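lol so apparently i was supposed to do this last week
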Amino acid sequence: MSIAEHFDDMSYGLSPESDAEARAWLARHNHSFGHYIAGGFTTPDASFQTFEPATGKPLAQLARGSAADVDAAVAAARKAQTAWAKLPGPARARHLYALARMIQRHARLIAVVEAIDNGKPIRETRDIDVPLAARHFTHHAGWAQLQATAFPDHVPVGVIGQIIPWNFPFLMLAWKLAPALALGNTVVLKPAEYTSLTALLFAELAAAAGLPAGVVNIVTGEGDTGALLVDHPDIDKIAFTGSTEVGRLIRQRTAGTGKSLTLELGGKSPFIVFDDADVDGAVEGVVDAIWFNQGQVCCAGSRLLLQEGIAGDFIRRLKRRMETLRVGSPLDKSIDMGAIVAPVQAERIRALVAQGVAEGASLYQAAIDLPANGCFYPPTLLTDVQPANVVAQEEIFGPVAVTMTFRTPDEAVQLANHSRYGLSASIWSESISLALQVAAKVEAGVVWVNATNLFDAAVGFGGRKESGFGREGGREGAYEYLKPKAMAGRKPRPVQPQIAARTASASDFAVPAIDRTAKLFIGGKQARPDGNYSRPVLTPKGAVIAEVGEGNRKDIRNAVAAARKADAWANTTAHNRAQVLYYIAENLSARATEFAARISAMTGRTTAKADAEVEASIDRLFSYAAWADKYEGTVHNPPLRGVALAMNEPVGVVGVICPPEAPLLGLISLTAPLIAMGNRVVAVPSAPHPLSATDFYSVLETSDLPDGVLNIVTGEPQPLAEALATHADVDAIWAFGTEALSEAVERLSASNLKRTFVDHGRLTDWHYPSAEGADWLRHATEVKNIWIPYGV
Ligand code: NAI
Ligand code: MG
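anyway here it is w/ NAI bound
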């Protein structure tokens, strides 16, 4: 081609990155890898093949992790953990810093191996994955350095099992390892079967950087190897990123085991464009939202919600932009999109798109050249998509955007939240007030204003709803790898006698004036239990003091509906919530003697002890009134011109199963932090001593707490907890009682991936200072990070 022809054509030439060093690294290992356990590579006895997505050619043999391999890796991590945790924070910080430096020194090799192994463009691995991974180690070296002062009341969780997906193999490894190691945990990590190579390269670099043996262990394999890790009895926590389906399974498998769990799962994130947006900026945003990493991004902006006035113009400009996208060899520095990770994934994308078209969507794929071989899928746009269409609901995990239109901001929010997922959202408008108003209302863990897919180690990442729970990065992410010192060494709770319910006699619920049977408290009103059963409340000697209603599933449904109706509580000011809590405390204080007498009558405790419980309850209410406007968010300064606002939002509707002991203080300790943060609560009071809760109605009635914010359903904790755990409109459950209760709550909450906070049958000393404060408020809130870039 002549120079003149080049000027006419203006097309890109090939600009390949050299893969010589990466191929030499593979050759040095004979294209075959063992696991990395206790500081060395094992000799594999069973292996499987990994392929290069862009060519379909075999790349290497990987070891298939067996039960014995997982055992050996967990044992190595256990052995290393004590010494690693005992290292002073600054010493651990040096190790993390050395890992960051090692990544920077070998950045090119890592970037090329990643591009070959995953199929993603070198431009992205070089400019995003690898530098961000290094940043994670540097940032968390900082948390290790500051651990003693930043987290004085916390200890490491222990040995962590980490399972990661294939879409950001090296970056996910860094997101997982950096906080775990920084805070004194050791790790067994299982990379995804399609993309294990950069994890093995990392192991080599970590050894060279002098990381002690056993601190990081890498076991390769497929889903069954992951399952072995999940089920291993000597693991203290599982941190998983991947599909919602597998995340749900892991929630069920770990239920009742005492393992802690964080899940980063799928998404179907809205990309909302208002008619006052910078349209060209937003079109470019779509490119980054859905064609970045071939759309294989959990937080991809895959649902384009366009305001009606600009939709036509926007789609025209977007289609024009799509024609200029280049799909090709991942090692070509001037391509926009590389290969899909594996044929099975490309097939999944094809099937979902075909189904979407069959359900009425219109398909647009720009006429651009795809490489003849390898696993490629073109940038795709589906228009005329109804909200119920499968492509508007399911995570496609490929380069496929779907569009829908809306008229008003409220409609945009409604459409945005019409999803079982809640990972991220991208909002485009030149009006800052409109953008922030919508940012506050979308159900998501991460929101980008006039931007998309921005990440930083200091800014927590994670979702709501079925996108999982827990955060990675930042201070909130650090807590996922720590546990309160106060939780260690708690004793098992003594077994409680069963209480039998009986049919209420006709008069039991009839005449309030002489009513010995306390009703339920739902939506601010006393309500008869649906089943018309009641249960006796006994003194320690077995005499009946009173009866309370025996709540059932229907009562739970009514209480949840009432709690949902009280959603406005989330938007009252913190000052207002504080006022209400002060008022409740004041009204309880006026009746302290009466409440103490009840506690004595039910529990047989001395007057002094009962008085102390009431005093502690009043004090706790005052504390949470104080906290209400002080448990605030953070302004992050990520490395860009702009800020990320970490906002503490209420979790939503929360079911609370109160412990049998401490009938008043238990109830207050669990419900006050939730109410202070704007949640709505359905509480099941102490089963043997419920009268402190039923007496409490009248305190609430005189305290300006809006109807439905706190609902109380008396009865047997286990079935009521199960009704709450399976209810689709409950967002979280706190359960304090038996081990069986914790197990059931964790297992059944997998249905819609509720957040859970349980005690595994261990006693909390409700009088200790550690029974209130930030650790509890953290469970009562979810962090939403709103990114607001403001400059160029
Ligand atoms: P996956 O969830 O099966 O795989 C993720 C990781 O979990 C891999 O390391 C895998 O080996 C492991 N794993 C699989 N089954 C397991 C089990 N029973 N116990 C423990 N570990 C297990 O995802 P997959 O099959 O690779 O992709 C299927 C779909 O999942 C994708 O099309 C996409 O929709 C979604 N996905 C979403 C991701 C996200 O970040 N949101 C990441 C990966 C997949
Ligand atoms: Mg799978």
